[in-house]
Amino acid sequence: MLGFAVFQVARRSECPFLKLGRVEAWLTAGTSAQSPIGVSNAFLIFVCSSTRGLDSSTALEFVQALRIGTNISRTTTVVSVYQASENQYDVFDKVCVIYDGRMVYYGPATLARQYFIDMGYEPANRQTTPDFLVAVTDPNARITREGYEGRVPRTADEFAEYYLKSDVGQINQKDMDRYLDDFVDKPQSAWAYRESAWAEHATTANKKSPYVTSIPMQTRAVMVRRLQILKGSLAAQITNLMAFTIQGAVVGTVFLRVPNTTASFFSRGGVLYLFVTSLGSVSHLLTLCPTSALVFNCMSSMAEIPTLFAHRPIILRHRKAAMYHPFIEAAAMTLVDIPITLATLTPYSILVYFVVGLQESASQFLYVLLGKFRLVTYISRVASSSFLSSPSLWS
């Protein structure tokens, strides 16, 4: 991943990895939010005003990291830099100067300064090359050389016409013509590109599919990401576990040690009802007197709705980039949540069962714990979570 290489090269030790589980990505603690560099098999990369708000040394490290990443991945990176320094300017191969929507220069960065000097403009005292190129496009900031007052271009059209007739413009035009002759409308180039695209596919993936990885590989990758997200929000998982434990203690103490007589038949039946069935209306559950553990387990899934919708733009972006199928997100979430849900509901079931004083035998307890209770509570929670996530995946 190029993003990791850029972070390491830029020596952002305070944030070497992007913290998962949040939409925002903070590169440094003392700057505003910046977008991380995450590029995979991209031939052309655009980076817009990425150094805005950074100090000069950090901006230089970032530009140098872009350069190293470009060399390693053998791509083309187009960067717009805000108030670039001379050191940042020297990192680039070519520079493009735009004046009122017209391209007035595009060529080697080392020749740009002399190009405009030969045109008839001169830089101010101790003026850097980037500032000089910007000043040339400003009628109030550019300085005309002595003797060139009536010959220099003034408007954007005159600048563009001068560039097309210049040696740099002619060389640029020849480079474009050579590229068109070598690569455009060439059957062998199209076949080589098709073979390279097939070679990127996994051996178990469909060669005609836009997804380069198979379904199991996508599931594994998304499951790992899901675990990393949960690790980033560990406090929420602990809070959820505590909530279930407290709820189990509350429900259990409401029916604390019900007597083994017919007087407790109604209460004991209500407790068993919560364990073994999910049928019946909510009002009936509440009439049976508990705080309704079943309803509590079902409604706890509602807390995941904001998180699901917060991840919707990310999932849609990944789908457009053909990183994985959208249904993989729901499947991976379900698979990862199975052990987490079981671990969360275990203290609840133990508290309710033994505090109430149901039959304390291994067969009955295991039946309740691993049978009907697990099935009902798991389906009510995870199935509702997957169902509620479907609008965020497909809308």
SSE blueprint:
Blueprint (H helix, E strand, L loop, with lengths): L1 H8 L34 E5 L7 H18 L2 E5 L5 H4 L4 E6 L2 E7 H11 L9 H8 L19 H10 L1 H17 L3 H14 L14 H18 L1 H21 L10 H12 L5 H6 L5 H8 L4 H6 L1 H9 L5 H31 L5 H33 L1
Parallel strand pairs: 1-2
Antiparallel strand pairs: 3-4
Question: What are the salient characteristics of this protein?
Answer:
single chain; 395 residues; mainly alpha; 3 domains; two-stranded parallel ribbon; two-stranded antiparallel ribbon; disordered N terminus; disordered C terminus
Which class best fits the helix and strand makeup?
A: mainly alpha
Main beta-sheet annotation? 2 strands, parallel
Shape: elongated
Q: Please tell me how large the radius of gyration is.
A: 32 Å
Question: Biggest sheet: strands side by side, in what order?
Answer: 1-2
How much of the sequence lies in strands comes to 5-15%
Individual helix count: 17
Low-confidence stretches: 1-39, 277-293, 391-395
Number of domains: 3
Mean pLDDT: 76
Q: What is the first-to-last residue Cα distance?
A: 30 Å
- The counted number of beta strands is 4
Could you state the order of secondary-structure elements as H and E? Answer: HEHEHEEHHHHHHHHHHHHHH
Helical residues, percent: 55-70%
Could you please describe the fold and organization of this structure?
With 395 residues, this protein is mainly alpha-helical. It folds into three domains: 2-89, no CATH class; 94-175, no CATH class; 215-394, no CATH class. The chain contains 17 helices and four strands. The strands form two sheets. Strands 1-2 form a two-stranded parallel sheet. The protein has a two-stranded antiparallel sheet with strand order 3-4. Helix 2 (56-73) links the parallel strand 1 (44-48) and strand 2.
